[in-house]
Amino acid sequence: MYNIFGEFDSAAGINETAVNLRREGDMENLKVLAKENGIDEDVLAAFVEGDILYLCDDMTAAIGKIEVEAKNVDCAEIMEDWVEYIKAQCFEKPEVAKAVRRKGRSLNGCIAALLKWSFKHQHPVDQKIMKAAGVSAGRCTLGIPGMATAKKIITDYYLEGKG
Asked: Computed over its alpha carbons, how large is the radius of gyration of the chain?
């Protein structure tokens, strides 16, 4: 995932490397840097042309990291929604966007925190619902956080140990 440049701890780290690569005229590695960090090709082109001073800000660096990590995680259905909730938190809370970029924080870790909550908060499904669903098991439980709870878990995960 971060094979050439490694995982950056901040947008500032990405930008410092990008500025140095542009100064050196190393466009190939600049493309690699952008790809490894989920930076849009149009943004890269504007940066290379000098139309913008920096490759990314905290939010675009966070969204890029989430998108790169999501390509390496087999997400489906509710987990895809969770990924979108993470992105939404980056838009809504600048401190979350900054924290998403930190080393040691990952999409895998965040989804694990959501899954951990899900297992701890399972509730029995009513027999009438089970019957209507055609479920013949003697007992069924479900524990999926609602959107507000999921966003709180996401925020707590990324901001944990902040400082």
From this structure: 20
Q: For residues 104 and 102, give the distance between their C-alpha atoms in angstroms, rounded to a whole number.
A: 6
Where are the chain's structural domains? 1-56, 75-163
The three-point CA angle 109-111-116 to 5° equals 90
- Reported as half-sphere exposure (CB side, CA atoms, 13 A), residue 41 has a value of 1
Structure tokens at 152: 């709180």
Q: What's the gap between Cα 66 and its chain centre?
A: 3
Q: How confident is the model at residue 161 (pLDDT cuts 50, 70, 90)?
A: low
The string of pLDDT tens digits covering residues 104-149 is 999 999 999 999 999 999 999 999 999 999 999 999 999 999 999 9
Q: Note the pLDDT of residue 2.
A: 80
60 contacts: CB under 8 Å, gap ≥ 6: 11, 39, 40, 43
Residue 92 to residues 7, 21, 155, 161: CA-CA distances in angstroms? 24, 32, 11, 20
What DSSP state is assigned to residue 74? -
Distance between CA atoms of 127 and 72, rounded to whole angstroms? 38
